[in-house]
Amino acid sequence: MKKLLIGLLFTTGFAFAQDPVELDLEEAVAYALEYKAEAEKARLDIKNADARIAEVRANALPNVSASANTTYNPLLQENVLPGEIFGIPGQDIAVAFGKEWTSNANAQLTQTLFNQQVFTGLKAAKSTKEFYQLNAQLTNEEIIERVANAYYQVYQAQQMLENLQSNLELTEQTVDIVKGLFENGLAKKIDFDRSKVALNNLIANRQQVINSVALSENALKFMIGMPIAQEISLPEQTFKPEILPETNIEEVERTELQLLNKQLELLNWQKKASLAEFYPSAALVANYGWLGQGDVFPVGNGEDKGVYWSDLAAVGVNISIPIFNGGATKSRVKQNQIEIEKAREDLKDTKLAMELAHANAVAQLENSLLTIRTQEENVALAREVLEDTQNNYGLGLASLNDMLDVERDLAAAMNNLTNARLEYKLAEVQLLRSQGQLEMLTNKTL
C-alpha cells in the first residue's frame, strides 16, 4: 500500500511536489526499475526481440503477393516472317503481334522448402530473446548498484550535516561560557571574539553542507528517474556495517557471464548461418493470373468489345546451388570465427575482473570495519576530552585554544566515522554484486 501511494503521488505530476516523500532504499530501487529510462529501454529491447523473431520466422512461412497492371501500346512491334507461312513464297512479311491494350492480374505463392540459413535463423531466434532478457537483467542490476550508491551518498551528506549541527551546538555552548567569563572579568575580549569567529565559520560551513545534501538528493532523484522538484526524505535508519555471508564466487553465475556466454552462443549461430551459404536452397513457386488483350481498355470490357480474357497458372520449384562466389562465404566464416575467439577472450578477462572486484571488496570491507571501530573509539574519546577541557576551561586550567582544538577534533572524528561507514556500505554493494546478490539491498535496511 505504501508503494502504491508513492507511485500515485509521483505520477500525479507536481501538484504535491512540496510534500516530502519518505523514501527507503527498497522503494528507491523499485521506483528506478519502474521509471528509469534504461530499465524501460531494456524492456523495449525484449519486445523488439519478439518482433525480430517473428521477422525471422516469416521467412519460413508462405509468402503471397499480388500484382496488376495495364499497358497501352500505341505502336506494336512488328516481326518479319517468311512469306511461305502465308502462302507467298520468296517474300518476307512484317507482322505486328499483340493488341494495343493489355491488362493482367497475377497472384504468386512462394514457400521455402529448404534453406539452411532460414532454419539456422529460426534456431538462433530463441537465443536472441534470451540475450535481451539477460541484458535487461544486467541493466536492472546496474541500476540497483547506482541507486544504492547514490542513496548512501545522500545518507552520508545528511549525517555530515548532523555532525556539523552537533559541533555547532557545542561551539554555541563555548561562546556562552566565554561570554559569561568575559562579562565577569574572567576572560579576555579576544577570547570571546575568537569563539564568535569559530561559531560564524561553522554557520557558513553549515550552508555549504546543506547545499551538498540538496545536490546529493538531486543526484539520487535523477538516478531513479524522479522529478527533481519532488522533495524526499530518508527514514531514520542505522548506518552500521553488517557482516555479510561469504559466497564462493566460483559458484556464482553472474549475469555478466551469462550474457557473455549467450553472446558467444549467438556468434556461433552467426557462423553457422554463414556456413549455410554453402548449402543449396529450394522453394516452391505457384502463380495464377488473368490476361486481357484488346483494341480498347480491357478492364470492364469483354469479347463483344474485342477484348479477350484468359487465365494462366504455373507451378514450379526453384533450386539454387551455390558454386563459387570468389571466396566471400569462406571469408565471412573466418571473420565469424575471429569474433568468437575475441568473445572467449572477453569472457576470460571478465572472469578475472570479477575475481579482482570480489577480492578488493572483501579487503575494503575488512579495512573499513577496522576504521569504523577505531573512529568509534575516537569519537567516544573526543567527547570525554571535550567534557574535561570544558571543565578545565571554567576553572582556568585550559586555554580557549585547547577548547577549540578539542571541538575540531571531535568534529573530525565524527566525520571520519561517517566517511568510514560510507566506504563500508559502498564496498558492501560491490561485494554483493560480485556475489550476484544485489537484490539483497532491496530486502534490508541500511
From TrEMBL:
Which Pfam families does the annotation name?
A: OEP
Q: What is this protein called?
A: TolC family protein
Question: Which Gene3D superfamilies does this one have?
Answer: Outer membrane efflux proteins (OEP)
- In terms of domain of life, where is this protein from? Bacteria
Signal sequence: where? Answer: 1-17
Keyword Membrane assigned: yes
Where is it localised? Cell outer membrane
Q: What is its main location?
A: membrane
Record keywords: Cell outer membrane, Coiled coil, Membrane, Signal, Transmembrane, Transmembrane beta strand, Transport
Q: Which residues form a coiled coil?
A: 32-59, 154-181, 333-430
What the record says about family reads:
Belongs to the outer membrane factor (OMF) (TC 1.B.17) family.
Q: Per its UniProt record, what PANTHER family does this chain match?
A: OUTER MEMBRANE PROTEIN TOLC (PTHR30026)
State the organism of origin.
Answer: Salinimicrobium oceani
